């Protein structure tokens, strides 16, 4: 061995830098929080800490709309089944580790945060529900690697044509199985994540048609902001606003949100149930005030809502209800479940997972 051997050579430093610490942390956090998510469903194993780590029994989108924006990031760590978890962890490592050792770590971390926000925002805006799972981010990783594969050989090796086919075919199958009711998947997170990754790649890594790719990136950013603040095209938004007004004992406002929902969205069983609760509260308030006109009006509205609900149930039983109405009625009967990545829980092991 030469006397002047340099133990602080660049080779040693590069070996340390090539360890994908952030990707490892992402995988470990997903395993821990998924375990807490599953354990929270078992009363015998649930503890105060586990309950705090998970959000079982709470609609994720409601937490977000209430201002708990941390769940826009935390929900990527929860998964609904072993298959859901293992699939996502495999691709997180395979794609994420390549990106992390190529890009500056701050850029990689920023990209992960952006991918989580955008994929969740697109899902929430399009479908009115937040999901669970990291597949939206996985699709963003794939999109970035695909867009920048011409610049980095390692990227080109990681996302071959076969990889491209795998991701595209899986995305299409997810749409089909969701439509058929076989699985409930957050397809908005998949496509939103992939488009975000490609946009970032073709804007900053391997510049190409910048204006064309700046437009979808700007639109997805706007959609994400609206998904948190204003969703007048989603039934879930009006239900949430009506129930929040009820919680604050603003009964007239609760009725107002219900009626606005009817005008904007039209007839939806779940919306009728929100109206039922709102008008019952109005009727109770009128009864306490001995307001006969108020009681009469509330009774008339309640009878009308009951009639519409009965018609919807009969139409469903006859098989004449539109397919878009089926999820509403089923959710009423079984309790609303969230979307998995995308939120369905282990009770969601049917995941509306990203997968």
Task: Give an overview of the whole structure.
With 355 residues, this protein is mainly alpha-helical. The chain has two domains: 17-229, Rhomboid-like (Rhomboid-like fold, Up-down Bundle); 235-334. The chain has helices at 10-17, 21-39, 48-53, 60-65, 71-74, 82-102, 105-127, 135-147, 153-158, 161-180, 187-205, 210-229, 235-247, 251-264, 269-288, 292-318, 326-334.
CATH superfamily heading of the largest domain: Rhomboid-like
Number of helices: 17
CA gyration radius, whole angstroms? 24 Å
Distance between the termini: 54 Å
Number of strands: 0
> What's the pLDDT, averaged over the residues?
85
Question: What portion of residues belong to β-strands?
Answer: under 5%
* Poorly predicted regions: 1-13, 320-326, 328-339, 342-352
Domain count: the total is 2
> Could you name the CATH topology of the largest domain?
Rhomboid-like fold
Shape label: elongated
For the record, what CATH class of the largest domain applies?
Mainly Alpha
Main beta sheet: strand number and arrangement?
none
Task: Quickly give the structural class.
Answer: mainly alpha
The name of the CATH architecture of the largest domain is: Up-down Bundle
The level of helicity is: 55-70%
């Amino acid at each position: 061995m030469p006397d002047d051997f340099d133990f602080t050579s660049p080779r040693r430093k590069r070996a340390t830098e090539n360890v994908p610490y952030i990707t490892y942390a992402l995988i470990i956090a997903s395993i821990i929080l998924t375990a807490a998510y599953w354990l929270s469903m078992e009363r015998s194993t649930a503890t105060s800490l586990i309950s705090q780590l998970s959000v079982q029994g709470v609609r994720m989108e409601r937490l977000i709309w209430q201002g708990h924006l941390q769940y826009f990031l935390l929900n990527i760590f929860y998964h609904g089944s072993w298959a859901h978890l293992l699939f996502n962890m495999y691709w997180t490592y395979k794609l994420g580790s390549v990106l992390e050792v190529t890009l500056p770590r701050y850029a990689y971390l920023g990209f992960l945060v952006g991918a989580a926000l955008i994929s969740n925002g697109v899902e929430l805006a399009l479908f009115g529900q937040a999901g669970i799972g990291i597949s939206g981010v996985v699709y963003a990783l794939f999109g970035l690697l695909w867009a920048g594969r011409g610049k980095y050989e390692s990227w080109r090796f990681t996302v071959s044509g076969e990889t491209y086919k795998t991701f595209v075919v899986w995305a299409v199958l997810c749409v089909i199985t969701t439509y058929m009711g076989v699985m409930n998947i957050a397809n908005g997170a998949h496509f939103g994540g992939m488009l975000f990754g490609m946009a970032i790649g073709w804007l900053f890594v391997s510049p190409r048609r910048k204006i064309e790719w700046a437009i979808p990136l700007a639109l997805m950013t706007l959609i994400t902001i609206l998904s948190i603040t204003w969703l007048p095209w989603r039934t879930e938004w009006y239900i949430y606003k009506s129930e929040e007004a009820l919680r604050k004992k603003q009964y007239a406002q609760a009725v107002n949100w219900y009626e606005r929902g009817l005008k904007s969205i039209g007839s939806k069983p779940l919306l009728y149930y929100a109206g039922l609760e709102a008008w019952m509260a109005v009727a109770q308030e009128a009864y306490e005030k001995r307001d006969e006109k108020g009681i009469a009006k509330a009774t008339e509205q309640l009878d009308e809502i009951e009639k519409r609900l009965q018609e919807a149930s009969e139409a469903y039983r006859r098989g004449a209800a539109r397919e878009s109405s089926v999820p509403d009625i089923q959710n009423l009967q079984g309790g609303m479940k969230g979307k998995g990545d995308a939120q369905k829980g282990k009770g969601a092991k049917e995941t509306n997972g990203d997968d």
